[in-house]
Design a protein that fits this description.
With 595 residues, this protein is of the alpha+beta class. Among the domains are: 121 residues, no CATH class; 89 residues, SH3 type barrels; 99 residues, Alpha-Beta Plaits (2-Layer Sandwich), CATH 3.30.70; 80 residues, no CATH class. It contains 18 helices and 19 strands. Strands 14-15-17-18-19 form a five-stranded mixed beta sheet. The chain is flat, with a radius of gyration of 53 Å. The relative contact order is 0.06.
Protein backbone atom coordinates (compact mmCIF):
# COMPACT_ATOMS: atom_id res chain seq x y z
CA UNK A 1 0.00 0.00 0.00
CA UNK A 2 1.59 3.28 -1.14
CA UNK A 3 1.60 6.60 0.68
CA UNK A 4 -0.98 8.04 -1.72
CA UNK A 5 -3.24 5.02 -1.24
CA UNK A 6 -3.21 5.65 2.49
CA UNK A 7 -4.11 9.31 1.95
CA UNK A 8 -6.97 8.30 -0.34
CA UNK A 9 -8.20 5.79 2.20
CA UNK A 10 -8.22 8.40 4.98
CA UNK A 11 -10.05 10.89 2.75
CA UNK A 12 -12.72 8.30 1.99
CA UNK A 13 -13.06 7.57 5.71
CA UNK A 14 -13.49 11.23 6.53
CA UNK A 15 -16.11 11.70 3.84
CA UNK A 16 -18.16 8.83 5.27
CA UNK A 17 -17.61 10.11 8.79
CA UNK A 18 -18.82 13.61 7.94
CA UNK A 19 -21.96 12.36 6.20
CA UNK A 20 -22.74 10.02 9.09
CA UNK A 21 -22.25 12.79 11.65
CA UNK A 22 -24.33 15.20 9.59
CA UNK A 23 -27.38 12.94 9.37
CA UNK A 24 -27.17 11.16 12.75
CA UNK A 25 -25.88 13.77 15.19
CA UNK A 26 -28.38 15.67 17.30
CA UNK A 27 -25.84 17.98 18.96
CA UNK A 28 -26.04 21.75 18.41
CA UNK A 29 -23.93 24.79 19.15
CA UNK A 30 -25.24 26.26 22.41
CA UNK A 31 -24.13 29.29 24.34
CA UNK A 32 -21.66 29.34 27.20
CA UNK A 33 -21.79 31.10 30.55
CA UNK A 34 -21.12 34.43 28.76
CA UNK A 35 -24.54 34.28 27.05
CA UNK A 36 -26.16 33.44 30.38
CA UNK A 37 -24.49 36.48 31.99
CA UNK A 38 -25.77 38.78 29.23
CA UNK A 39 -29.34 37.46 29.58
CA UNK A 40 -29.11 37.81 33.38
CA UNK A 41 -28.07 41.47 33.03
CA UNK A 42 -31.13 42.24 30.86
CA UNK A 43 -33.39 40.31 33.24
CA UNK A 44 -32.07 42.23 36.27
CA UNK A 45 -32.66 45.57 34.51
CA UNK A 46 -36.23 44.55 33.61
CA UNK A 47 -36.93 43.51 37.20
CA UNK A 48 -35.87 46.95 38.44
CA UNK A 49 -38.08 48.73 35.89
CA UNK A 50 -41.13 46.46 36.11
CA UNK A 51 -42.89 48.13 39.05
CA UNK A 52 -42.64 51.57 37.40
CA UNK A 53 -44.25 50.53 34.11
CA UNK A 54 -47.59 52.09 33.14
CA UNK A 55 -50.74 49.98 33.28
CA UNK A 56 -51.20 50.11 29.52
CA UNK A 57 -48.56 49.21 26.91
CA UNK A 58 -46.22 48.00 29.65
CA UNK A 59 -44.41 45.56 27.36
CA UNK A 60 -43.63 48.17 24.69
CA UNK A 61 -42.43 50.63 27.31
CA UNK A 62 -40.15 48.03 28.87
CA UNK A 63 -38.64 47.18 25.46
CA UNK A 64 -38.02 50.88 24.76
CA UNK A 65 -36.17 51.29 28.06
CA UNK A 66 -34.05 48.18 27.44
CA UNK A 67 -33.03 49.28 23.94
CA UNK A 68 -32.22 52.76 25.20
CA UNK A 69 -30.01 51.38 28.00
CA UNK A 70 -28.17 48.58 26.12
CA UNK A 71 -28.18 49.59 22.43
CA UNK A 72 -24.56 50.74 22.42
CA UNK A 73 -23.35 47.74 24.46
CA UNK A 74 -24.86 45.03 22.23
CA UNK A 75 -24.22 46.03 18.61
CA UNK A 76 -25.25 43.75 15.71
CA UNK A 77 -22.75 41.00 14.80
CA UNK A 78 -20.72 41.45 11.62
CA UNK A 79 -19.33 37.92 11.17
CA UNK A 80 -21.15 34.81 10.00
CA UNK A 81 -22.83 32.66 12.62
CA UNK A 82 -21.17 29.26 13.25
CA UNK A 83 -23.70 26.42 13.44
CA UNK A 84 -23.64 22.63 13.71
CA UNK A 85 -22.19 22.03 10.24
CA UNK A 86 -19.28 24.35 11.00
CA UNK A 87 -18.69 22.53 14.29
CA UNK A 88 -18.57 19.18 12.48
CA UNK A 89 -16.04 20.52 9.97
CA UNK A 90 -13.95 21.83 12.85
CA UNK A 91 -14.27 18.42 14.53
CA UNK A 92 -12.92 16.78 11.37
CA UNK A 93 -9.95 19.14 11.24
CA UNK A 94 -9.12 18.66 14.92
CA UNK A 95 -9.40 14.87 14.73
CA UNK A 96 -7.18 14.68 11.63
CA UNK A 97 -4.61 17.00 13.15
CA UNK A 98 -4.42 15.23 16.53
CA UNK A 99 -4.54 11.71 15.05
CA UNK A 100 -1.61 12.65 12.80
CA UNK A 101 0.25 13.98 15.85
CA UNK A 102 -0.42 10.78 17.81
CA UNK A 103 0.39 8.35 14.97
CA UNK A 104 2.29 10.23 12.22
CA UNK A 105 2.57 8.59 8.77
CA UNK A 106 6.14 9.02 7.47
CA UNK A 107 6.82 10.31 3.97
CA UNK A 108 8.32 8.17 1.21
CA UNK A 109 11.94 8.91 2.13
CA UNK A 110 11.35 8.10 5.80
CA UNK A 111 9.52 4.91 4.82
CA UNK A 112 12.45 3.79 2.70
CA UNK A 113 14.91 4.62 5.47
CA UNK A 114 12.96 2.62 8.03
CA UNK A 115 12.65 -0.33 5.64
CA UNK A 116 16.40 -0.33 4.92
CA UNK A 117 17.12 -0.11 8.63
CA UNK A 118 14.81 -3.07 9.30
CA UNK A 119 16.09 -5.19 6.36
CA UNK A 120 19.66 -4.17 5.46
CA UNK A 121 21.35 -5.44 2.25
CA UNK A 122 25.07 -5.87 1.65
CA UNK A 123 26.50 -3.98 -1.34
CA UNK A 124 29.50 -4.69 -3.47
CA UNK A 125 32.66 -3.61 -1.70
CA UNK A 126 31.30 -4.10 1.83
CA UNK A 127 33.50 -6.06 4.19
CA UNK A 128 31.49 -9.02 5.48
CA UNK A 129 31.90 -11.77 8.03
CA UNK A 130 30.10 -15.02 7.10
CA UNK A 131 29.40 -17.97 9.40
CA UNK A 132 28.78 -21.08 7.26
CA UNK A 133 29.21 -24.83 7.08
CA UNK A 134 32.65 -25.92 6.01
CA UNK A 135 31.43 -29.48 5.67
CA UNK A 136 28.45 -31.40 7.06
CA UNK A 137 30.24 -31.72 10.41
CA UNK A 138 32.13 -28.44 10.87
CA UNK A 139 31.33 -24.71 10.94
CA UNK A 140 33.76 -21.96 9.99
CA UNK A 141 33.90 -18.15 9.68
CA UNK A 142 35.04 -16.42 6.50
CA UNK A 143 35.80 -12.69 6.26
CA UNK A 144 36.44 -10.63 3.18
CA UNK A 145 35.26 -7.97 0.73
CA UNK A 146 31.98 -8.73 -1.05
CA UNK A 147 32.36 -8.98 -4.79
CA UNK A 148 29.01 -10.39 -5.85
CA UNK A 149 25.96 -12.20 -4.38
CA UNK A 150 23.76 -13.79 -7.04
CA UNK A 151 21.90 -17.04 -7.67
CA UNK A 152 22.56 -18.30 -4.15
CA UNK A 153 26.36 -17.86 -4.40
CA UNK A 154 28.31 -15.29 -2.39
CA UNK A 155 31.62 -14.35 -3.98
CA UNK A 156 34.37 -12.75 -1.97
CA UNK A 157 37.77 -11.73 -3.21
CA UNK A 158 39.18 -15.23 -3.05
CA UNK A 159 36.37 -17.62 -2.14
CA UNK A 160 32.74 -18.51 -3.01
CA UNK A 161 30.18 -19.52 -0.39
CA UNK A 162 26.73 -21.00 -0.92
CA UNK A 163 23.83 -19.29 0.85
CA UNK A 164 22.51 -22.79 1.60
CA UNK A 165 25.56 -23.41 3.81
CA UNK A 166 24.56 -20.36 5.89
CA UNK A 167 20.91 -21.42 6.20
CA UNK A 168 21.84 -24.73 7.84
CA UNK A 169 23.04 -22.85 10.94
CA UNK A 170 20.35 -22.00 13.50
CA UNK A 171 19.78 -18.26 13.92
CA UNK A 172 21.72 -17.38 10.73
CA UNK A 173 18.68 -16.75 8.51
CA UNK A 174 18.64 -12.96 9.02
CA UNK A 175 22.33 -12.67 8.10
CA UNK A 176 21.83 -14.82 4.99
CA UNK A 177 18.93 -12.59 3.90
CA UNK A 178 21.34 -9.62 3.66
CA UNK A 179 22.91 -11.29 0.61
CA UNK A 180 19.56 -11.94 -1.15
CA UNK A 181 18.60 -8.69 -2.92
CA UNK A 182 15.30 -9.93 -4.35
CA UNK A 183 13.99 -11.34 -1.04
CA UNK A 184 15.18 -8.28 0.90
CA UNK A 185 13.46 -5.82 -1.47
CA UNK A 186 10.26 -7.84 -1.22
CA UNK A 187 10.42 -7.75 2.58
CA UNK A 188 11.03 -4.00 2.53
CA UNK A 189 7.87 -3.50 0.46
CA UNK A 190 5.90 -5.66 2.87
CA UNK A 191 7.37 -3.73 5.82
CA UNK A 192 6.33 -0.36 4.32
CA UNK A 193 2.86 -1.67 3.51
CA UNK A 194 2.38 -3.03 7.06
CA UNK A 195 3.72 0.21 8.56
CA UNK A 196 1.27 2.36 6.60
CA UNK A 197 -1.58 -0.02 7.37
CA UNK A 198 -0.81 -0.01 11.10
CA UNK A 199 -0.47 3.77 11.31
CA UNK A 200 -3.67 4.27 9.30
CA UNK A 201 -5.58 1.82 11.46
CA UNK A 202 -4.19 3.42 14.64
CA UNK A 203 -5.33 6.87 13.46
CA UNK A 204 -8.79 5.55 12.63
CA UNK A 205 -9.17 3.86 16.02
CA UNK A 206 -7.94 6.96 17.85
CA UNK A 207 -10.40 9.19 16.00
CA UNK A 208 -13.31 6.86 16.72
CA UNK A 209 -12.41 6.71 20.41
CA UNK A 210 -12.03 10.49 20.79
CA UNK A 211 -14.79 11.61 18.43
CA UNK A 212 -17.28 12.61 21.14
CA UNK A 213 -14.81 14.61 23.24
CA UNK A 214 -13.34 16.42 20.23
CA UNK A 215 -16.83 17.14 18.87
CA UNK A 216 -17.82 18.64 22.24
CA UNK A 217 -14.67 20.76 22.18
CA UNK A 218 -15.49 21.94 18.64
CA UNK A 219 -19.04 22.88 19.72
CA UNK A 220 -17.66 24.93 22.63
CA UNK A 221 -15.11 26.59 20.34
CA UNK A 222 -17.82 27.61 17.87
CA UNK A 223 -19.98 28.94 20.71
CA UNK A 224 -17.08 31.00 22.07
CA UNK A 225 -16.34 32.41 18.60
CA UNK A 226 -20.02 33.33 18.13
CA UNK A 227 -20.10 35.17 21.46
CA UNK A 228 -16.83 36.97 20.65
CA UNK A 229 -18.40 38.07 17.34
CA UNK A 230 -21.39 39.61 19.17
CA UNK A 231 -23.96 36.80 19.16
CA UNK A 232 -25.86 35.78 22.30
CA UNK A 233 -27.66 32.47 22.83
CA UNK A 234 -31.19 33.16 24.17
CA UNK A 235 -33.78 30.43 24.71
CA UNK A 236 -32.33 28.10 22.04
CA UNK A 237 -31.67 30.81 19.41
CA UNK A 238 -28.53 32.79 18.51
CA UNK A 239 -29.34 36.53 18.30
CA UNK A 240 -27.48 39.83 18.17
CA UNK A 241 -28.14 43.56 18.42
CA UNK A 242 -31.73 44.71 18.89
CA UNK A 243 -33.00 41.21 18.12
CA UNK A 244 -31.21 39.97 21.24
CA UNK A 245 -32.54 42.87 23.34
CA UNK A 246 -36.13 42.30 22.15
CA UNK A 247 -36.01 38.56 22.87
CA UNK A 248 -34.36 38.95 26.28
CA UNK A 249 -36.78 41.74 27.29
CA UNK A 250 -39.79 39.68 26.17
CA UNK A 251 -38.66 36.68 28.24
CA UNK A 252 -38.09 38.88 31.30
CA UNK A 253 -41.47 40.61 30.92
CA UNK A 254 -43.33 37.28 30.60
CA UNK A 255 -41.60 35.92 33.70
CA UNK A 256 -42.26 39.00 35.83
CA UNK A 257 -45.84 39.33 34.61
CA UNK A 258 -46.50 35.66 35.50
CA UNK A 259 -45.12 36.21 38.99
CA UNK A 260 -47.30 39.30 39.39
CA UNK A 261 -50.43 37.40 38.33
CA UNK A 262 -49.64 34.55 40.72
CA UNK A 263 -49.17 37.02 43.60
CA UNK A 264 -52.48 38.73 42.79
CA UNK A 265 -54.32 35.40 42.72
CA UNK A 266 -52.78 34.39 46.04
CA UNK A 267 -53.76 37.69 47.66
CA UNK A 268 -57.31 37.34 46.36
CA UNK A 269 -57.53 33.77 47.65
CA UNK A 270 -56.31 34.84 51.10
CA UNK A 271 -58.86 37.63 51.19
CA UNK A 272 -61.64 35.21 50.26
CA UNK A 273 -60.52 32.74 52.93
CA UNK A 274 -60.37 35.50 55.57
CA UNK A 275 -63.88 36.67 54.69
CA UNK A 276 -65.19 33.10 54.80
CA UNK A 277 -63.56 32.55 58.20
CA UNK A 278 -65.23 35.66 59.56
CA UNK A 279 -68.60 34.50 58.29
CA UNK A 280 -68.12 31.05 59.90
CA UNK A 281 -67.18 32.70 63.20
CA UNK A 282 -70.36 34.76 63.20
CA UNK A 283 -72.43 31.69 62.34
CA UNK A 284 -70.84 29.54 65.08
CA UNK A 285 -71.22 32.29 67.68
CA UNK A 286 -74.95 32.29 67.01
CA UNK A 287 -75.09 28.52 67.53
CA UNK A 288 -73.00 28.28 70.72
CA UNK A 289 -74.17 31.39 72.56
CA UNK A 290 -77.67 31.56 74.05
CA UNK A 291 -80.19 33.47 71.98
CA UNK A 292 -79.72 37.16 72.27
CA UNK A 293 -76.17 36.92 73.81
CA UNK A 294 -72.53 36.83 72.62
CA UNK A 295 -69.62 34.52 73.45
CA UNK A 296 -67.42 35.88 76.22
CA UNK A 297 -63.70 36.03 75.23
CA UNK A 298 -62.72 34.95 78.74
CA UNK A 299 -65.06 31.93 78.57
CA UNK A 300 -63.59 30.92 75.21
CA UNK A 301 -60.05 31.18 76.57
CA UNK A 302 -61.00 29.05 79.58
CA UNK A 303 -62.57 26.45 77.31
CA UNK A 304 -59.43 26.25 75.16
CA UNK A 305 -57.17 26.03 78.23
CA UNK A 306 -59.29 23.19 79.63
CA UNK A 307 -59.20 21.32 76.31
CA UNK A 308 -55.41 21.72 76.14
CA UNK A 309 -55.07 20.46 79.72
CA UNK A 310 -57.16 17.40 78.90
CA UNK A 311 -55.06 16.75 75.82
CA UNK A 312 -51.81 16.93 77.80
CA UNK A 313 -53.23 14.63 80.48
CA UNK A 314 -54.21 12.09 77.81
CA UNK A 315 -50.68 12.21 76.36
CA UNK A 316 -49.13 11.74 79.83
CA UNK A 317 -51.48 8.82 80.56
CA UNK A 318 -50.57 7.19 77.25
CA UNK A 319 -46.83 7.58 77.99
CA UNK A 320 -47.28 6.12 81.47
CA UNK A 321 -49.24 3.16 80.07
CA UNK A 322 -46.52 2.54 77.49
CA UNK A 323 -43.77 2.63 80.14
CA UNK A 324 -45.76 0.24 82.31
CA UNK A 325 -46.26 -2.12 79.37
CA UNK A 326 -42.53 -2.08 78.55
CA UNK A 327 -41.65 -2.74 82.20
CA UNK A 328 -44.06 -5.69 82.33
CA UNK A 329 -42.60 -7.04 79.09
CA UNK A 330 -39.06 -6.70 80.46
CA UNK A 331 -40.06 -8.50 83.69
CA UNK A 332 -41.74 -11.28 81.72
CA UNK A 333 -38.70 -11.78 79.48
CA UNK A 334 -36.40 -11.90 82.52
CA UNK A 335 -38.64 -14.52 84.17
CA UNK A 336 -38.63 -16.58 80.98
CA UNK A 337 -34.83 -16.35 80.80
CA UNK A 338 -34.44 -17.47 84.41
CA UNK A 339 -36.90 -20.32 83.81
CA UNK A 340 -34.89 -21.44 80.77
CA UNK A 341 -31.66 -21.32 82.78
CA UNK A 342 -33.23 -23.38 85.59
CA UNK A 343 -34.55 -25.85 83.04
CA UNK A 344 -31.12 -26.02 81.42
CA UNK A 345 -29.42 -26.62 84.79
CA UNK A 346 -31.96 -29.31 85.69
CA UNK A 347 -31.41 -30.96 82.31
CA UNK A 348 -27.63 -30.90 82.81
CA UNK A 349 -28.08 -32.39 86.29
CA UNK A 350 -30.29 -35.14 84.85
CA UNK A 351 -27.72 -35.89 82.16
CA UNK A 352 -24.90 -36.05 84.70
CA UNK A 353 -26.97 -38.32 86.94
CA UNK A 354 -27.85 -40.54 83.99
CA UNK A 355 -24.16 -40.75 83.08
CA UNK A 356 -23.25 -41.70 86.66
CA UNK A 357 -26.05 -44.25 86.78
CA UNK A 358 -24.78 -45.82 83.57
CA UNK A 359 -21.24 -46.08 84.95
CA UNK A 360 -22.02 -47.34 88.48
CA UNK A 361 -24.01 -50.54 88.88
CA UNK A 362 -25.58 -50.84 92.27
CA UNK A 363 -26.18 -54.32 93.65
CA UNK A 364 -29.81 -55.19 94.27
CA UNK A 365 -30.99 -54.62 97.81
CA UNK A 366 -32.03 -57.59 99.83
CA UNK A 367 -34.15 -57.93 102.89
CA UNK A 368 -32.14 -57.57 106.03
CA UNK A 369 -31.88 -60.85 107.89
CA UNK A 370 -30.38 -61.77 111.14
CA UNK A 371 -26.98 -63.51 111.12
CA UNK A 372 -24.56 -64.54 113.83
CA UNK A 373 -21.89 -62.11 114.96
CA UNK A 374 -19.01 -64.28 113.79
CA UNK A 375 -20.53 -64.49 110.31
CA UNK A 376 -20.78 -60.69 110.12
CA UNK A 377 -17.13 -60.31 111.19
CA UNK A 378 -16.05 -62.84 108.59
CA UNK A 379 -17.92 -60.96 105.87
CA UNK A 380 -16.30 -57.65 106.90
CA UNK A 381 -12.81 -59.19 106.84
CA UNK A 382 -13.42 -60.68 103.41
CA UNK A 383 -14.69 -57.33 102.06
CA UNK A 384 -11.64 -55.49 103.39
CA UNK A 385 -9.28 -58.07 101.92
CA UNK A 386 -11.08 -57.97 98.60
CA UNK A 387 -10.93 -54.18 98.48
CA UNK A 388 -7.20 -54.13 99.24
CA UNK A 389 -6.56 -56.73 96.55
CA UNK A 390 -8.72 -54.82 94.04
CA UNK A 391 -6.98 -51.48 94.53
CA UNK A 392 -3.54 -53.12 94.54
CA UNK A 393 -4.34 -54.93 91.32
CA UNK A 394 -5.78 -51.78 89.69
CA UNK A 395 -2.78 -49.73 90.67
CA UNK A 396 -0.49 -52.37 89.25
CA UNK A 397 -2.39 -52.36 85.95
CA UNK A 398 -2.95 -48.62 85.40
CA UNK A 399 0.20 -47.08 86.90
CA UNK A 400 2.84 -48.92 84.95
CA UNK A 401 6.42 -48.34 86.03
CA UNK A 402 8.03 -47.32 82.75
CA UNK A 403 11.40 -47.08 84.43
CA UNK A 404 11.60 -50.87 84.25
CA UNK A 405 10.41 -50.67 80.67
CA UNK A 406 13.40 -48.65 79.50
CA UNK A 407 15.74 -51.23 80.98
CA UNK A 408 15.00 -53.24 77.84
CA UNK A 409 13.92 -56.44 79.58
CA UNK A 410 10.88 -56.63 77.28
CA UNK A 411 8.19 -57.33 79.88
CA UNK A 412 6.18 -54.10 79.46
CA UNK A 413 6.15 -54.12 75.68
CA UNK A 414 4.99 -57.74 75.77
CA UNK A 415 2.22 -56.77 78.19
CA UNK A 416 1.23 -53.86 75.92
CA UNK A 417 0.83 -56.00 72.82
CA UNK A 418 -0.84 -58.69 74.93
CA UNK A 419 -3.46 -56.11 75.93
CA UNK A 420 -3.89 -55.21 72.26
CA UNK A 421 -4.52 -58.84 71.32
CA UNK A 422 -6.82 -59.38 74.30
CA UNK A 423 -9.19 -56.54 73.38
CA UNK A 424 -8.58 -55.39 69.79
CA UNK A 425 -11.99 -53.74 69.45
CA UNK A 426 -11.57 -51.28 72.33
CA UNK A 427 -7.79 -51.11 72.85
CA UNK A 428 -6.57 -48.60 70.21
CA UNK A 429 -2.93 -47.76 69.54
CA UNK A 430 -0.38 -46.02 67.31
CA UNK A 431 3.20 -47.33 66.97
CA UNK A 432 6.06 -46.13 64.73
CA UNK A 433 9.66 -47.30 64.29
CA UNK A 434 12.59 -44.86 64.61
CA UNK A 435 16.35 -45.32 64.06
CA UNK A 436 17.37 -44.82 67.72
CA UNK A 437 15.84 -44.91 71.18
CA UNK A 438 16.44 -41.16 71.58
CA UNK A 439 14.49 -40.53 68.37
CA UNK A 440 11.58 -42.63 69.66
CA UNK A 441 11.49 -40.79 73.02
CA UNK A 442 11.76 -37.43 71.25
CA UNK A 443 8.86 -38.43 68.99
CA UNK A 444 6.66 -39.11 72.02
CA UNK A 445 7.55 -35.71 73.48
CA UNK A 446 6.19 -34.06 70.32
CA UNK A 447 2.65 -35.06 71.32
CA UNK A 448 0.73 -32.40 73.26
CA UNK A 449 -0.42 -34.84 75.96
CA UNK A 450 3.11 -36.15 76.76
CA UNK A 451 5.64 -33.96 78.61
CA UNK A 452 9.27 -34.35 79.65
CA UNK A 453 9.86 -34.08 83.40
CA UNK A 454 12.87 -32.39 84.98
CA UNK A 455 14.55 -35.77 85.51
CA UNK A 456 14.23 -36.52 81.77
CA UNK A 457 11.44 -39.10 82.07
CA UNK A 458 8.27 -38.82 80.01
CA UNK A 459 4.93 -38.13 81.69
CA UNK A 460 1.45 -38.32 80.21
CA UNK A 461 -1.56 -36.08 80.92
CA UNK A 462 -4.01 -38.81 79.90
CA UNK A 463 -4.80 -42.23 81.36
CA UNK A 464 -3.18 -44.27 78.57
CA UNK A 465 -0.17 -46.53 77.97
CA UNK A 466 2.92 -45.10 76.25
CA UNK A 467 6.61 -45.81 75.90
CA UNK A 468 9.46 -46.93 73.63
CA UNK A 469 11.45 -50.14 73.36
CA UNK A 470 14.33 -51.47 71.23
CA UNK A 471 13.34 -53.34 68.11
CA UNK A 472 15.91 -54.91 65.75
CA UNK A 473 18.32 -52.03 64.93
CA UNK A 474 15.94 -49.24 65.95
CA UNK A 475 13.31 -48.41 68.55
CA UNK A 476 9.50 -48.44 68.56
CA UNK A 477 7.46 -45.73 70.30
CA UNK A 478 3.79 -46.34 71.03
CA UNK A 479 0.69 -44.88 72.66
CA UNK A 480 -2.49 -46.83 73.31
CA UNK A 481 -5.20 -47.92 75.66
CA UNK A 482 -8.92 -48.27 76.00
CA UNK A 483 -9.07 -44.55 76.88
CA UNK A 484 -7.14 -43.48 73.80
CA UNK A 485 -9.96 -41.46 72.23
CA UNK A 486 -10.18 -40.26 68.66
CA UNK A 487 -8.43 -36.91 69.30
CA UNK A 488 -5.40 -38.56 70.95
CA UNK A 489 -5.26 -41.29 68.29
CA UNK A 490 -5.57 -38.74 65.45
CA UNK A 491 -2.81 -36.53 66.85
CA UNK A 492 -0.40 -39.45 67.18
CA UNK A 493 -1.24 -40.86 63.74
CA UNK A 494 -0.72 -37.40 62.20
CA UNK A 495 2.41 -36.22 64.05
CA UNK A 496 4.56 -39.36 64.35
CA UNK A 497 4.80 -40.28 60.63
CA UNK A 498 5.89 -36.72 59.76
CA UNK A 499 8.95 -36.83 62.04
CA UNK A 500 12.41 -37.53 60.54
CA UNK A 501 13.26 -41.22 60.28
CA UNK A 502 9.74 -42.43 61.13
CA UNK A 503 8.61 -45.77 59.65
CA UNK A 504 5.19 -47.35 59.93
CA UNK A 505 5.05 -50.14 62.53
CA UNK A 506 1.47 -50.75 63.67
CA UNK A 507 -1.61 -48.53 63.83
CA UNK A 508 -5.07 -49.62 64.91
CA UNK A 509 -8.32 -48.52 63.36
CA UNK A 510 -9.60 -45.15 64.57
CA UNK A 511 -11.56 -45.16 67.86
CA UNK A 512 -15.29 -44.65 67.77
CA UNK A 513 -16.40 -41.14 68.68
CA UNK A 514 -18.79 -40.91 71.62
CA UNK A 515 -21.29 -38.44 70.26
CA UNK A 516 -25.07 -38.64 70.43
CA UNK A 517 -26.71 -36.59 67.69
CA UNK A 518 -30.47 -36.12 67.45
CA UNK A 519 -32.41 -37.74 64.64
CA UNK A 520 -31.52 -35.51 61.66
CA UNK A 521 -34.42 -36.81 59.55
CA UNK A 522 -36.96 -35.99 62.22
CA UNK A 523 -35.43 -32.56 62.80
CA UNK A 524 -35.54 -31.63 59.12
CA UNK A 525 -39.05 -32.99 58.55
CA UNK A 526 -40.88 -31.38 61.47
CA UNK A 527 -40.28 -27.89 60.02
CA UNK A 528 -39.30 -26.54 63.43
CA UNK A 529 -35.54 -26.92 63.20
CA UNK A 530 -33.97 -26.94 59.74
CA UNK A 531 -30.31 -27.96 60.00
CA UNK A 532 -27.80 -28.69 57.27
CA UNK A 533 -24.64 -30.76 57.69
CA UNK A 534 -21.42 -29.13 56.39
CA UNK A 535 -19.21 -32.20 56.91
CA UNK A 536 -16.65 -33.44 59.41
CA UNK A 537 -13.05 -32.27 59.68
CA UNK A 538 -10.06 -32.50 62.01
CA UNK A 539 -8.97 -29.19 63.57
CA UNK A 540 -6.16 -28.10 65.91
CA UNK A 541 -6.09 -25.39 68.55
CA UNK A 542 -3.28 -23.00 69.49
CA UNK A 543 -1.53 -25.74 71.52
CA UNK A 544 -1.59 -28.21 68.62
CA UNK A 545 -4.25 -30.46 70.18
CA UNK A 546 -6.42 -32.29 67.66
CA UNK A 547 -10.22 -32.37 67.70
CA UNK A 548 -12.83 -33.89 65.43
CA UNK A 549 -15.21 -31.12 64.40
CA UNK A 550 -18.76 -31.78 63.21
CA UNK A 551 -19.98 -28.73 61.27
CA UNK A 552 -23.62 -27.72 60.73
CA UNK A 553 -25.57 -24.61 59.74
CA UNK A 554 -29.01 -23.33 60.77
CA UNK A 555 -30.98 -20.17 60.10
CA UNK A 556 -30.75 -18.52 63.54
CA UNK A 557 -28.98 -18.49 66.90
CA UNK A 558 -32.05 -19.87 68.71
CA UNK A 559 -32.20 -22.89 66.39
CA UNK A 560 -28.47 -23.49 66.86
CA UNK A 561 -28.79 -23.51 70.66
CA UNK A 562 -31.83 -25.79 70.43
CA UNK A 563 -29.87 -28.25 68.28
CA UNK A 564 -26.85 -28.14 70.61
CA UNK A 565 -29.13 -28.81 73.60
CA UNK A 566 -30.27 -32.03 71.92
CA UNK A 567 -26.68 -33.16 71.25
CA UNK A 568 -24.57 -35.07 73.80
CA UNK A 569 -20.73 -34.98 73.57
CA UNK A 570 -19.25 -37.92 75.47
CA UNK A 571 -15.47 -37.38 75.27
CA UNK A 572 -12.71 -34.82 74.95
CA UNK A 573 -11.49 -33.90 71.49
CA UNK A 574 -14.98 -33.84 69.99
CA UNK A 575 -16.54 -30.50 69.14
CA UNK A 576 -19.65 -29.37 67.26
CA UNK A 577 -19.79 -26.08 65.35
CA UNK A 578 -23.11 -24.63 64.18
CA UNK A 579 -22.91 -21.64 61.82
CA UNK A 580 -25.65 -18.98 61.92
CA UNK A 581 -26.03 -15.42 60.58
CA UNK A 582 -25.42 -14.18 64.16
CA UNK A 583 -22.16 -16.14 64.54
CA UNK A 584 -20.77 -19.63 65.20
CA UNK A 585 -21.85 -21.59 68.28
CA UNK A 586 -20.29 -24.81 69.49
CA UNK A 587 -20.39 -27.54 72.08
CA UNK A 588 -17.76 -29.83 73.55
CA UNK A 589 -17.41 -31.90 76.70
CA UNK A 590 -17.51 -28.73 78.83
CA UNK A 591 -20.80 -27.47 77.37
CA UNK A 592 -22.08 -24.89 74.89
CA UNK A 593 -19.95 -21.89 73.88
CA UNK A 594 -19.85 -19.11 71.32
CA UNK A 595 -16.92 -18.76 68.93
Amino acid sequence: MSFFAVKARLSLFWGCFFLLALFSSHADVVGSSLSAQRVAAIDSFCEQQFDTLPATKAEAELLRRVISAFKDKFAPATEALLLEDDALLLTQELLQQRAAEQYPIPDAEEQQRLAEEEFPLYKRGDRVRIVHKKNPFATTVTEGVLYEARNGIIKLANVSIRVRDMMDISGNEAEALKFDQKATLLRREQFIENLLKQRSQAQTEWMLQNQESVEEEAMQTCARRNEEAGYTFVSGIWTSGEQFLERAALLAYNRLNSLKQVAEKRAMLLAEQSLEAQMQTVELSGKIAPPGSWISPAAELNRRAKAESQRLQAIAAAKEAELKRQEEKKTRLEEERLAKERQKQEEEARKQQALLDSQVVMPPTRARSKMPLYAALAVIVLLIAGGVFYFWRRKGEEEVDFGKFFEGKGRLQKEFWARVEANPDRFKYVAYLFPHMNDANNALSKLTYIDTARDGNLTCKRDIFFGAYPHQEGAVCFVGGEKLNYALWREASAILPELPGAEYFKVSTEPAVRLELPDMTAISSDGELQIKSLGVEDVTNELGEFSRCYRYSVESKERALEFLEKTAVGEEGVVIHVETPEGVFGKDLNGIFEM
